[in-house]
Design goal:
alpha+beta
Amino acid sequence: MEFNGIIYTAFSSNDEIKQFHKYIDFDTRPRFPEDLPEGERKLAEEAEFIEYPVDIEYLSELECLYTLSYLGDFEVTNKVIVKLARFFNAKRLVVFIQNDEEFCEYRQYIPGENRLLYSYLSPKSPLKDSAIEDYLIEHQFDNSAFKKILETYP
């Protein structure tokens, strides 16, 4: 089953976002873990098979949106992305996952927290807001819809 996703990251320093980006982007992902510092070798091995982004949009020097098309198991990719974000001290990580219109949620991972921000088709969503849902549908859950979620649920 194919899933689409968008990942938002916010970091405190350029070095942190560059390190995180190195593991996400196809062109910079380490190919030989043995060439890395000891503390990063296991990360490189885990990140080896996660999905690559189809699009990368920098919102600022310290914030980025990565658009992915998950052909494999999105839970494995997300687990590694959360681990990478924590390793490189992300201030905020928000993940959007969508499978057609059966499953669609925005989940935030910050240090010490894993919280559902919004679930489009689920009554489990903490807040149901028809104006937000109209906006998400109108923008077809694209980057502008994602930005609306980020603004609405800081």
